[in-house]
Please model this.
Amino acid sequence: MKDKLEEINSINGVKTSFVFFNDGEVVFDKLPSGFDPDNCMEIAKDVVQVSAMFDRLATPLSEFDFKYDTGRVIVFPNSNFNLIVLCLPTVSISMLRLTVNVALADLENDKKFQKRIQKIETSRRSFLVKSNMDAETWALAEIVN
Model:
């Protein structure tokens, strides 16, 4: 899996990518200097909460993109995990999608990876609890319910 993350990280404009499993495990290839693993964990939890809200709305997502002045968080959600890419605003989205699609197809054929995700609950609902959210996010989750 780390070799797939290396491929994604080699794209011009990608700062880092990582996999966040629904059971809370994070898999990095490596974090660039200046990136805090705790901040990446917070991003991952927020991503799973957004995915869970869309699950509750019966609106599956294949990709979502948070755009900021200095960067982007692009997410490729799957039932058992999320592939999260932190990048510059100037990243080539077409190159990123192409590389991610190849990487995800390779992971589908990776027996070790498939064995790992079979152990994980496909529901992200455990992330939609009040103790995991700030007040604004909880209010939004209650509207979705």
